[in-house]
Amino acid sequence: MSEPAAPMLDVFILSYNRAEFLPQTLACFWEQSFQDFRITVLDNASTDNTAEVIAGLQAKRPFRFIQQAENIGVFRNFMQVRDLVQAPWVMIFHDDDLLHPRALELAFSALKQHRRASLCGMNYTGVVDPVMDNFATDVEASDYLHFDNQVHFASYCYTDNAVAFSSCIYRSVDFRRLEFDDTPYGKLWDRPAMVQAMGEGEALVLRPILVLYRLHAGQDSQASKSGPFLPNAIALIAFYAGLLGGDWGTSSGRCFVINNRAVLKSFYKWCSDRGEVTFNGFVARARKAGAATGFSFVPRPLSRLLKKWHRKRDRHFF
Fold first, then answer.
1. Closest listed residue to residue 290, CA positions, set 229, 228, 227, 243
2. What φ, ψ does residue 246 adopt, rounded to 5°?
3. How far apart are the first and last CA of the chain?
4. Alpha carbon 311 to chain centroid distance?
5. pLDDT grade, residue 221 (50/70/90)?
6. 271 exposure class (CB count in 10 Å sphere: 0-12, 13-18, 19+)
7. How far apart are alpha carbons 145 and 57 in whole angstroms?
8. Angle CA 54–55–61, to nearest 5
9. DSSP assignment, residue 300?
10. SS3 117
11. Largest alpha-carbon pair distance within the chain?
């Protein structure tokens, strides 16, 4: 007997000690209006009752469960997907978030309109106790942003516009080529990995809120002891500088320069070791690493005015 044809989408849910939330997360996929996908839960050697919960869920609806022998870390669990994906498209999802019931339908509707697209991202919002009823029902298939290339998409990400790394859909052939070192970025590795994983294609971002990002005490993003730290923030901004440049004659260069102070300030406030240095000291360190320009010392009101002016005239500027 021949093997069944691969689905359009492979969904990988990266999990660690989320037995409490996994049933709700998996249920949001069973409720999708688009069902041409296969689910794999990649468990990172959970120490709670995840295996028991999974067994109960598999009895109702079969899906693949792969459990690591030891905790290999979030990043290595993420990178393992390159070797496991078989479908033309791949999605990597958090084990505690929820997905709008039409999210996959809307994503593939947009991807059909843009054959060169290699990534489709989604907008999100943080919620303490998310339920499916939190989602709006009046979402439009045509409501999305289109980015011509990696630099254009990176300009959008650099200015901290909302795109959920945890729900991006990647063209598998591009995702398999991803070679990435997370070391410089610490817990900020997800954004540069997302940008690099799109390869040389185009990118789409669906504008409605399609992901409910669960906020709770157990998540790493809420733990200051794991960062981010000042060197991680500088490495991330330097990554964007390498893509966008600082040339005032280009849209991406203007985006980097004009937004630089605001981006530096945002990350400085987030870094758990910011008490070690003043903001100006942080900027000085960033300049040495190529992550800041002299424009970083321009007063914020002037940079806001410039940003407003350019956004009205240039769709590549954010």
1. 243
2. -130, 25
3. 53
4. 24
5. low
6. buried
7. 36
8. 85
9. H
10. strand
11. 69
The encoded tokens of residue 154 equal 């990176």
E strand or H helix at 93: strand 89-94
What are the residues whose beta carbons fall under 8 Å from the beta carbon of 164, sequence distance 6 or more? 97, 121, 122, 123, 124, 210, 211, 213
Three-class DSSP category at 54: helix
**For residue 209, which phi and psi values (nearest 5 degrees)?**
-70, 110
Average pLDDT, the chain: 94
For residue 29, the one-letter residue type is: F
Q: Which CATH architecture fits 9-220?
A: Alpha-Beta Complex (3.90)
Would you state the pLDDT for residue 263? 95
Averaged pLDDT, 246-263: 94
Query: Both tokens of residue 76?
Result: 């290595």
Please say if the pLDDT value at position 274 is more than 60: yes
Per-residue tokens: 109:
């509707």
Q: What pTM was computed for the model?
A: 0.94
Ranges assigned E (strand) in 128-215: 144-147, 169-171, 202-214
Which pLDDT band holds residue 277 (cuts at 50, 70, 90)? very high
Alpha-carbon span 238 to 236, nearest angstrom:
5
Question: Where are the domains positioned within the chain?
Answer: 9-220, 223-313
Beta bridge partners of 144: 206
187 touches 73 (CB < 8 A): no
Which residue reads 């919620």 in tokens? 127
Q: Output the CA angle 162-165-169, nearest 5 degrees.
A: 110
